[in-house]
Amino acid sequence: MKTLVVASTNPVKAQASLNGFQRMFPAETFAVVPLSAPSGVSNQPMDSAETLRGALNRAEAARALHPQADFWVGIEGGVEETGGELAVFAWVAVLSPAATGKARTGTFFLPPAVAKLVRQGIELGEADDIIFGAVNSKQQNGAIGLLTGDVIDRAALYEHAVVLALVGYKNPDLYQDGKF
User: Fold this and answer.
1) What is the pLDDT averaged over residues 134-161?
2) Please, which pLDDT band fits residue 92 given cuts at 50, 70 and 90?
3) CA dist 171 to 25, 113, 143, 176, 180, Å?
4) What average pLDDT score do residues 59-75 get?
5) Which residues are involved in binding substrate (predicted)?
6) Does the pLDDT at position 178 exceed 90?
């Protein structure tokens, strides 16, 4: 059994990580260890570079807190101004003792009312709860689930990026530098 440390106590991030690993490595079994790890970036990253840095920082912090694991996963959600609209996405970083995998989720745009609150400094999850009358949506279906009627929820959005971050682990002969 391999140990997978997820740098968050959010059950959505832990489940998305486990699902992605199980899809890519169905013959393996994984024990998931969720733990709180700092991102080292703002509570609501406002561009892609800051969001990626947050995911990498979380994974590195998880490795420092639980060094005996096989993999460490950092997931960081962010937003970015694009053509006057606020785009939403997340970065996933997967570390192992010898490699680093990274991938970004799909992107969607926030409704103007939510975007306005985020631009005012309110974290996206809180803004969603205000506009949609939800409670703690970031630990459930998230903005994407609220906007799609759960056709895609937050776990599914993250799971896809976890799979993509594992491409180099699945194909190590093609990524010999350990960065993918």
Assistant:
1) 92
2) very high
3) 12, 43, 33, 9, 10
4) 98
5) 8-13
6) no
Closest CA to 138 of 165, 114, 106: 114
Report, at the CATH architecture level, how domain 2-105+154-173 is classified: Alpha-Beta Complex (3.90)
> Binding site residues, as ranges?
8-13, 68
Question: Strands, DSSP E only, in the chain?
Answer: 2-6, 30-34, 71-82, 85-95, 100-104, 108-109
**Arithmetic mean of pLDDT, 145-152:** 94
AA identity, residue 170 = K
Annotated binding site for substrate: 8-13
Separation between Cα atoms, residue 6 and residue 14, nearest integer Å: 6
Cα distance between the two ends of the chain:
24
Model confidence at 114: pLDDT above 90: yes
Please give the annotated binding residues for Mg(2+), written as ranges. Answer: 68
User: Residue for token digits 């979380």?
Assistant: 58
CA distances from 169 to 24, 96, 151, 163 (A): 9, 9, 29, 10
Structure confidence at residue 137 (pLDDT) = 86
69 residue type, one letter: A
pTM for the predicted model, two decimal places: 0.94
